[in-house]
Amino acid sequence: MGKWSDNEALMRSSVRQEIIKALWEKIKVNGLEQFNILKIVLGLLEPIEQGYLETEYSRKFDEAVHKDDFMTFQQIIENTLRRTAKKKVLSRTSDSVTLGDIEDEVDKTLAEIQSGEHLSMPLVDEVDPMITPEDIADLKEYMDEIQFSGSVSIFNRDQMYPPLEQEKFGDNPIFSIHSVAKVFTGILLMKMIRDGIISEDDIDKPIQLSDSVLQELSPAVQERLSHATLKQIMLHQNGLGDYLDNASGHAADIEQKLNAGQAVPEIKSSHDLLKYGEKKVLNPLGQFSYSNLGMLLLGFAIEKKYQDAQQAKGETPSLGIDEIMRHFVKEDVGLKVFENKRPEKGYYAEKQRNLQDKKPDYIKQYVSARYASTAGGYWTTNEDLQRFAQWIRAECERDSRFKQLIERYGAEFYNPQKQAVEHSGIHADTAHFYTSLRNGTTICILSDQGERAATNLADMILKQTTWYKSQRIATEFEITPQVRPVSPAYDRALSLASTSQPVEETSLEVKKDSGNKLGK
Known about the structure:
CATH topology of the largest domain: Beta-lactamase
Radius of gyration: 26 Å
CATH architecture of the largest domain: 3-Layer(aba) Sandwich
GO molecular function, one term: hydrolase activity
Keywords: Hydrolase
Organism: Candidatus Berkiella aquae
Helix content: 40-55%
Largest sheet: 7 strands, antiparallel
Protein name: Beta-lactamase
Number of strands: 14
CATH class of the largest domain: Alpha Beta
């Protein structure tokens, strides 16, 4: 393994040990009887029809605690985690299971234990990345090691490094940025508020859309929009669904037409996408639920306000959201490439699930038929993403209110802990955009690989150039006793426990019988 892989292995080991140490200390203080839910998560207690079966590992776990034997305690947890992780991975795939798959599952379970047990862990103070030419060489070595396919561009401390990309892509290749497009939408909205086209007061008022947009939506969606604020639309708290990957969505229509040997639907503007919107309201207002339809409608809210301003000035013709976005990125920001549809040499993750067994001509037609909107899918280059990042930073430095608007309303794309504008592009994360408003470091990654390749690589670059250099333990979040974070493994364990007897949040009373069966 190369230097970065070695660092990652050391960090993974350190984080695991810190979590297990924190768990040990909590058990020593509170007593074993409070941790049967933990045992279910670990697989030390196995659910059966009438209760729970105590495993040999469970008894050794208890014995290690009673004997104050931390080393044995740690070994039992690690061995049990790997055994349980292998079962989980095998249950999800028919492919061969790698050691890396198992270790990733172990880390996931430990993170859920940290969350479910409210373990307070040390966080690394966020520091600015310090990317050196040596780091770039290490990055190239790591990209070769993991066989990364794509383009990486990095700007750090007034230095733009040459892009790292494979020869097969040629110069300045064009990729789909998928949901990174939402950063463009959000920044455009902040600019319109700053410029007075949209009032800041409108953020907390119901979204305003033109009649031509509303009439394309179902009565249920129209009713929801009469109450949903612009802020709730921005932050995916509107309860709306999708327009792209839902059962009757844009992607499904393309697939159905291709599978039937028919011509693909011709989409000429974002307005043509409205007919694909989910007809039902899926969640309560105010509850987070990722909604591409909501982000599509955010674009049309921008369109409505822009056209109102045009009308007040007597400007013609009225621009639609596609033209408004194109003017913003081409004229204001200065991008050279920014397309709604796939260019002739546009790269895309063609091995995604619904395309992996298709012929090249099918894939070409499928990808070329998709139309980008304010919810996602634009096509551009790494060079242009760097231009966009530079423009954002320059505007924040020039106008403090613009930065304040991003900090106040940009939760969709602004990370306050990192003080950075950041977003990944789905389809298994084929794009990632990161620019620090603190020191200007920018990392742009575009890939045709999928499988979280872009986001995983961005995370690795940040870890290698911040946390590892500080030689301190880093964890993803800090747990406080007042708020119980999401922990699916604990939710499942609590649900299983409740089917046999009432339980409290952090405890499950179980009794042994002569056959080591645990139940009522």
